[in-house]
Amino acid sequence: MSDPSFMTLQQHIIQRQRCAEEATGEFSFLLSGITIASKILADQVRRVGLLDILGTTGEVNVQGEQVQKLDDIANDMLMQCIGYRRCVHAMASEEVADPVELETGDAGRYIVLFDPLDGSSNIDVNIPVGTIFSILKKPEPNGKECSVEENVLQKGCEQVGAGYVLYGSATVLVYTTGDGVHQFVLDPSIGAFILVKEQLTIPEKKAIYSCNEANAHSFDEGVQNYLNWVKTSEAGPYSARYVGSFVADFHRTLLKGGVFLYPATAKAPEGKLRLMYEANPMAFLVEQAGGKASTGDTRILDVEPTKLHQRVPLVIGSKKEVEIVEDFMARRRSAVSA
């Protein structure tokens, strides 16, 4: 007799689709493309020291960053595994300048955006890396011809699915379709993602902050005031945790609580993280888990995208902790405008 507590990712998606209106099975088929790619990538990451996949390709991507060999592998793998799904209208990758429209006609209902291998520059020192994905629906025709990029440029609140895969001591997949956040772990003995936690919730408050304080001198003064405050006896004090791989930092924050910050800097005045590939999917996840995501003054999911590779400042994590950071930033803005 099978264990009723044993549930694979595909079973979980199908079970939830049975309760949804107009369930066609297309969404589960789409997610299967992501899981197939992630299993292959997990194997590549696990054998990174044994294969010739360390280092850069010598090329620079659209973000102005050195392309790692594994970036190329991850991008190609996701493009192939998702691109053959007829339910996909278009794909967009952090590694590619323009979105890719697929020849699926009216069958293509979904748009998939992804960061193929977040944190890949850390792969050679065995720091966990990850894949982030965001799923949108192709907009309904509104009487005018829209380009594929116009179809892709939707607010984060329009997402119908989002998630990430973390390649660490275990391969973990976390996803949401707007009905809570669910965590799975890859069991390599059977090649399937197994449900380990349904309806994840982030602690409302936790005295942990995560950011690259080496850049603090060029942060907004409100953020600097916050970073000074967390070290005082009045604040607690707080504990600092920072990996430098966004998926790893976010995963810890989601499970343990606290706040992750990547504010604007003098070098990156618009912020560092990409709205469409990083901030939006993680904001969708954290809100579904009871947390909050903000630019410092605006809800991330309400930010209007104007370009595919747009960057934003990000404050994300436990609701109360994000609000403390927002309050410090708001007080600074008030002082400047007074």
State Rg. Answer: 20 Å
Strand order of the largest sheet: 4-3-5-6-7-8-9-10
Here the CATH topology of the largest domain equals Fructose-1,6-Bisphosphatase, Chain A, domain 1
Low-confidence stretches: none
Helix and strand content put the structural class at: alpha+beta
CATH superfamily of the largest domain: Fructose-1,6-Bisphosphatase, subunit A, domain 1
Query: What is the count of β-strands?
Result: 17
**Strand percent estimate:** 15-25%
Taking all residues together, what is the mean pLDDT? 89
| Largest beta-sheet details | 8 strands, mixed
CATH class descriptor name of the largest domain: Alpha Beta
Helix content: 25-40%
**How many separate structural domains?**
2
User: Total number of helical segments?
Assistant: 8
- H/E element sequence: HHEEHEEEEHEEEEEHEHEEHEEEH
CATH architecture of the largest domain: 2-Layer Sandwich
First CA to last CA: what distance?
70 Å
